Amino acid sequence: MSEFTVTVLRFALFALLWLFVFLIAAVLRQDLFGPRVARSRRDRRRGRAASEAPAAAAHGSPPPDQQSAFSSSPTLVVTSGRQNGFSLLMSAGQLTIGRADDCGFVIEDDFASSHHARIYPQAGAWVVEDAGSTNGTYVGSARLTQPTRIEPGMPITIGHTTMELRA
């Protein structure tokens, strides 16, 4: 074989090795953060979450013991993160927050789990609970270890996204 052929084969092997490294990195990224979602699909999910909240509120009234506490439903507002300014009217039922399509609030955060946390009414107050997420859910600066009562204005942090209830 000529010297030129050996050099070309060396560069081809070098390129194949780098291709292998990039494929490994792509597989690791997908395992850690989930598959990439096209931008147009995210916009459709964001619209779906906003339109489902009023529909969920119209499916009946809360039980009598919760009627007075939830006569005016608060709004969940994203105060920082990719979806800054997004708001969702809370109904009297449970709201699941995460990256999965079946969540009531689909969050666009690589550090959120598919089913990260849930917010639900209990005994006339709103409660936030971590759903066994990897990176945790924080109220203020405290990481949740058990269901925690939240008041309007208390920051709830999931990954790089911060949100709060507003009355």
Automatic annotation (TrEMBL):
What PROSITE patterns does the record tag this protein with?
Answer: FHA_DOMAIN
Domain of life per record? Bacteria
- InterPro entries xref list: Cell_Proc_Reg/RNA_Proc, FHA_dom, SMAD_FHA_dom_sf
Low complexity bias locations: 50-60
Q: Where is this region: Disordered?
A: 43-74
**Is-annotated flag, keyword Transcription?**
no
Q: Does the keyword Phosphoprotein apply?
A: yes
Q: Which residues form the FHA domain?
A: 95-144
Keywords on this record?
Phosphoprotein
The name this protein carries in UniProt is FHA domain-containing protein
Q: Which organism is it from?
A: Brevibacterium jeotgali
